[in-house]
Design a protein that fits this description.
This protein is an alpha/beta fold. It is built from eleven helices and six strands.
């Protein structure tokens, strides 16, 4: 979660001109009352206490607990303030949209989707997206869709709203049998009044752009159209990339941009454009994240960037000053593609003459159908009908 990736992204976006004439808003610090929307008093106090103590020489005792001091969630001086600024950024973005100052807003520092009500998890301290969604509900939004394209399951946001029928959480991620946090199965669809407002699309390791996008489009537009959100909140983690060291999906930057544009299109179609995008995971800190999130900023600004655009020399020099010798990409793309063949119903077994490819299509189609059969009936949709 190196903050370097945020600085490198902003530098790259500025160098390529994406941010010309764009107003950036200082995030501010989320108030404790805002954090309390989704976190317990005991947890916030523990974070604040650990934060003030700084890096402990001895592992913390039970007075800390709450997931703090683990390998994934080490204690560091200022962690309460850092988490509060991240939440403050996503709150500022939410406020800008709710106040009508902007239709779309992005906080690339946000997306701490694993943080739970009472404990830190997966590098995430405060769940900025959940805080902002809770606030938007109080501002009068009655139906909010959260779409999470990070390679990991968006478990913290799902848990925060699992009993709330006003929030639909959709997560497309690497299969829980193969990746932490080992949740996000197709059968998790919510209970009681909130049944059908949890959607999980698990994909096997190795899934590439075209099949990832086939799965996204085979499920997400349908469930969103049925739910009719007034705003979309997107978690745009880019650890789905084939170079990412922590996970095993095989997307390129082009595939990731296909997802960003699809979410923008859905916000335009269903929410009068209202789209709040946050960052998330992404551990290709230098070669991947800055390019992908520059595309995200470009997408939000309708300044779509051609992936063949050369990476500015100025940015390369900046990187090489701190990391000499690292091989940098020459363009904003990887030579991938956002083209995909749409899901074409159950039993449409492919026969392309390439058995490996056909097997991959069959597996992803199996995943698509499992999700549709789990959740579509509760939304009044026909899981087997390609028109739904
Ligand atoms: Zn992740």
């Amino acid at each position: 979660m190196s903050p370097t990736r945020l600085a490198l992204t902003m530098a790259l976006a500025e160098n390529v001109g994406i941010l010309d004439d764009v107003e950036t808003i200082a995030p501010g610090i989320a108030a404790e009352t805002e954090l309390l929307r989704v976190h317990t008093r005991g947890y916030i106090d523990a974070v604040a206490k650990a934060s003030a103590a700084g890096e402990p020489a001895i592992l913390p005792g039970p007075e800390f607990d709450h997931g703090l001091g683990s390998d994934d969630n080490p204690i560091f001086a200022g962690m309460h303030e850092a988490g509060s600024v991240i939440a403050g950024g996503t709150m500022a973005a939410a406020r800008a949209i709710a106040d009508g100052v902007a239709t779309r807003a992005v906080n690339i520092g946000g997306g701490m989707h694993h943080a739970m009500s009472d404990y830190a998890s997966g590098f995430c301290v405060y769940n900025d997206a959940a805080v902002a969604i809770s606030w938007l509900l109080d501002r009068g939004y009655e139906r909010i869709a959260y779409i999470d394209v990070d390679v990991h399951h968006g478990d913290g946001v799902q848990a925060a709203f699992q009993d709330d029928p006003r929030v639909m959480t959709v997560s497309i991620h690497q299969h829980p049998a193969t990746l932490w946090p080992n949740t996000g199965w197709a059968a998790e669809i919510g209970k009681g009044a909130a049944e059908g407002t949890i959607v999980n699309i698990p994909l096997l390791p190795g899934t590439e752009d075209a099949l990832w996008l086939r799965a996204f489009h085979g499920v997400v537009p349908s469930v969103l159209r049925a739910f009719k959100p007034q705003i979309i909140v997107s978690q745009c983690g880019v650890d789905t990339h084939k170079e990412d060291p922590l996970a095993d999906l095989s997307l390129t930057v082009e595939g990731q941009v296909g997802a960003f544009r699809a979410m923008r299109d859905l916000a335009d179609e269903l929410c009068e454009g209202r789209w709040l995008a946050v960052g998330g995971g992404g551990y290709g800190v230098i070669r991947v994240v800055p390019r992908s999130w520059t595309h995200l900023l470009a997408t939000a600004l309708d300044r779509d960037l051609d992936p063949t655009t050369p990476i500015p020399e100025k940015w390369k020099q900046t990187v090489h000053e701190s990391v000499p010798g690292i091989e940098l990409p020459d363009t904003f793309g990887d030579g991938g593609s956002a083209y995909y063949a749409p899901w074409d119903g159950p039993g449409g077994a492919p026969d392309t003459g390439d058995p490996r490819h056909d097997r991959a299509v069959e597996r992803v189609d199996g995943a698509i159908l499992a999700v549709r059969r789990s959740v579509f009936p509760t939304l009044g949709l026909d899981p087997d009908d390609v028109r739904d």
